[in-house]
Amino acid sequence: MSELANEVKTVRELAPVYFRNPKAYFWRWVEKGKIVEWRSGDTLCYREELARVLRGLTEHGLPPLASVLLLLAACADTWSEPGDNASVLKHSWQQMPTAPDDPSEAALEWQIRHVLLFLDVVSALPGNLRTGEPKLHLFREVFSAQAPQISAEMASALLDEWDSGRTDTVLHFSRSPVTRRVFSNELACLAQSLNRFPTPEALALHLRTGLDKLPEPLPLPAPAAVETAPLAAEPADLFDQLAQDVRTAGLARLTRQLVAALRIPLHARGASDQPIGGISDVTNRGNFDRLLLSELAHDDHVLLARLVNNEALYLRREAPPHPDVKPRTVLLDTTLRMWGVPRVFALAAALAWARNSRQAGPPAPVAAFALGGQHATPLDLDTFDGVVATLAQLDPAPHAGPALLAFGRTQPAAGDCLLITDAQLLHQPVFARQLAEAGPALRFLLTVDRSGELQLYEYQNGHRSLASTARYDLEELLFTAAPRQPLQFRTPTDGPAFLQQVPAPLYFPVTGLRVSIKNTFYAAEIGVLSITDRQRVLFWPSKDTGARELLPEIESGAYHFGADGFHTVYVLVSARRLLRIYAFITATGEVEMVDLAAEVATPDDALPVVFKDGCYHVQWAGGTLVFDCRRWEIRDHRSSIFPAHAASAFRPDFGHIKRYINNGYNVLHRVNHVGLSNQCALVIEGHVLALASSPRKLTHELQLLSKNRGTVNEEVFHGVVPVDPKGFPLLANEQLLFRRFAWPDGSGGLLDPRGLLHLRSADATVPEITLVLVLGQPTAAWAADGTVCGSTYFTGPNPARCLSVLEFNRLYLQRFIAHLG
User: Fold this and answer.
1) Could you tell me the CA-to-CA distances from 112 to 67, 93, 106, 181, 506 in Å, in that order?
2) How far apart are alpha carbons 165 and 654 in whole angstroms?
3) The MoxR-vWA-beta-propeller ternary system domain covers which part of the protein (predicted)?
4) Are 702 and 691 in contact (CB under 8 A)?
5) Greatest CA separation found in the chain?
6) Which distant-in-sequence residues (6+ apart) come within 8 Å of 21 by Cβ?
7) Cα 345 vs. chain centroid, distance in angstroms?
8) Is the separation of the CB atoms in 88 and 38 below 8 Å?
């Protein structure tokens, strides 16, 4: 029997096996093989639609039919409608026969859950990406990562056998049921696609541009402050707009490099082509080299007098004509070989060519067109929206030869025409022949390559010659991550002056903290970092000072601590729909953050986490994500190895930690009244702000003395005002509620729940004052002009402007009290 007969026999045997539905499966044929329906009875797809999709997949071979049908169902608008089809799929494996090599039930449930999640992602795509010709592109991209069930060599013959109708008689007879192992293999590609495309946005980006991620933007320098009168706003430069958007920042960087390097060859002209050199007039102004020869006939004195009196005559040369300005046309290849990185490279070259053309002298108009497989489409390279739309111009044709020939026949030949295409296409016989036919309509040819090489050719007298070449590091220009940037915190513009100082001019007392292994980290070489009950992140660099507030609010969740051993503490926060890593640089107070929730498909709950060797290992449904904190990047996305959960290195002596973060004070929290004493001192909830002497230090200290101490008596208080019991948020952390009070003269203040009191006088010449409300230890105060006084525990060891307690009381506190009367 001939080889052809063997192949025919094989195809005839395979067709029923491939197209017949297994017994008790989630789909089946009905209506004499014209419709595929769910086991529930709902229509899944029609035979014509299935045939069109399978024909589009023959180039790489046919995937399992079950996966194709599920993807077809997700592309339909009815997928999102409520029904029991998803439930049928969930439980279909339970009726399948078992085998020794079957995956576990937990693995099957996990796989089906991920299949359904990915089908939801496909269903959420815009309609123009899952219908018509783009639908075939979607199927090719999804199944490109899977080995075909039917090879590419046999796929077309198999579909021809199916189209012949010879297999229709057996479609009504179910074949033997598939095993759980086969079922798992058929759906594996759809489950794995969720890792590649976890969101509709990621899938849409890949379908439109061929890129899996957008180039990261570089940080923009802060604009210098210019104290001038405001001018009318001018439209921003296109390149600046591209650089400011995360989607196009890498494109802007590459384009600026090309603008500097890409030079457009000038037109060569012969000397006889320039109509200059004649005499147009005679004038009494000019240079001596243009003096009429007849003027030299005068004697020296007469000639000098004529020159001085502007009576001498000069020749006036003809003005050279304005150079011819030829319009320039850019043809941008958008066919298959230009997808992905070459697409961005080519667009950057087109933008650079257009910029250099318009900045030449004189400027040349530029028109741009996208060359598809058959047609040319006008492009807008002058606006931001036009550039973004150009990135989405893709054509699945193998090359743009037919469109190039059609463009040459329909467009006028005047002007300089540039074609931008892939370098490898020059070696394709069909395209090379069509390019040669279109050569007379072209002036320049620019080729790009995935390696970063760019070559510019010029056509002269029908011959193509290399004009210039260059090479660029596309990975660095397009995908280099932006340098780590510290978080910027919003400060209230209408609140107390103390809140507008970054960092805070005083150290904070500790409030709302119950030290435990879940919220506190301690390292002798770094200090103590804790997260309070109200999600504040406080840091104590030593036991001799209060706390620095590194972050006013951190998300609630499970906290996992780590450190680099020098000056940086890492905190990973894990909760439902949340996975973030913070880096607290304790030496400078800067905070950096990276959000990883999208990398783990938005977790439903807190995930298992281990910090090891400077890396966070996060176990999620797709494997183990490894984040390198020192390099601040993801090292591995789906590692299957999750390290054993070692015991935490933080085993503090809680007594030692409490002494480290508190030198023996209590914070005055419950304040309902503020007034004055008979000795002209502030009284805060019965505690007098007094100047106490320290015999040991031979200095005065600022302290809040209880009404039960000394001669303080409640009867001598006056000017008492109540504190508003209703609090209001003033900071980003809305759990911190400030409370207001005011005196009749207009002076007043705010009680800060962080253990502070802010005072503002009705006398505008008195700076605002902030007091630390601690009992049992000396306190400290700050004035809005930057002056501090009191305990170094709250002011720091070396404040810039420090007064003695006596001077601060005289210059600030007493002036505030005096205005109250």
Assistant:
1) 12, 10, 10, 13, 56
2) 81
3) 41-204, 739-819
4) yes
5) 125
6) 27, 28, 29, 171, 174, 175
7) 20
8) yes
Report helix angle 47-56 to 65-75, nearest 10.
110
3-state DSSP call for residue 462?
Answer: coil
Residue 504 pLDDT grade (very low, low, confident, very high; cuts 50, 70, 90): very high
220-229 CB contacts, 8 Å cutoff, 24+ apart:
220/244
- pTM equals 0.48
* Integer CA distances (angstroms), 449 to 71, 343, 424, 469, in order: 34, 10, 8, 12
Q: Identity (one letter) of the amino acid at 671?
A: V
Residue 46 has which token pair? 């029609």
Using alpha carbons only, what angle is made at residue 755 by residues 750 and 760, rounded to the nearest 5 degrees? 25
Residue 173 CA to residue 23 CA, distance in Å, equals 9
Question: Model confidence over 612-623: pLDDT tens digits?
Answer: 888 999 998 888
Instruction: Assign 494 a pLDDT band (cuts: 50, 70, 90).
Output: confident
Indicate the DSSP class of residue 795. Answer: H
Residue 469 backbone dihedrals phi, psi, to 5 degrees: -145, 150
Sign of CA dihedral 811, 812, 816, 821: negative
Place of tokens 């899952």: 130
Provide the b/e sequence for 509-528 (b: ≥16 CB within 10 Å): bbbbbebeeebbbbbeebbb
Other CB atoms within a 10 A radius of the CB of residue 503 amount to: 11
> Under a CB-based contact definition with an 8 Å cutoff, are residues 635 and 616 in contact?
no
**Domains recognised in the chain with CATH numbers:** 3-204 (no CATH), 259-264+324-479 (3.40.50), 282-317 (no CATH), 510-658 (2.40.128.630), 665-820 (no CATH)
The helix/strand/coil state of 157 is helix
CA dist., res. 640 & res. 644, Å (int): 13
Candidates 477, 478, 428, 420; CA nearest to 449 is: 420
Q: What is the pLDDT of residue 716?
A: 58
From residue 129, alpha-carbon distances to 35, 200, 204 in Å are 24, 11, 7
Crossing angle between the packed helical segments 200-209 and 105-123, to the nearest 10 degrees: 60
User: Two tokens at 554?
Assistant: 């951190």
Average pLDDT, the chain: 83
766 exposure class (CB count in 10 Å sphere: 0-12, 13-18, 19+): buried
Strand partners, 405: none
Q: Tokens for 26, please give them.
A: 């989630």
Q: Which pair of tokens denotes residue 74?
A: 């997700």
Chain segment 150-159, per-residue pLDDT in tens: 888 888 888 9
The beta strands (E) that lie in 196-288 are given as: 279-283
In whole angstroms, what is the distance from residue 740 CA to residue 721 CA? 10
- Contact status, residue 683 vs residue 723, Cβ threshold 8 Å: no
Tell me if residue 706 falls in helix, strand or coil.
coil
Which pLDDT band, with edges at 50, 70 and 90, does 748 fall under?
very high
How does DSSP assign 582-596, residue by residue? EEEETTTTEEEEEE-
Which tokens hold the place of 113?
Answer: 């859950």
The answer to whether the beta carbons of residues 723 and 715 sit under 8 Å apart is no
* Beta carbons of 755 and 511 less than 8 angstroms apart: yes
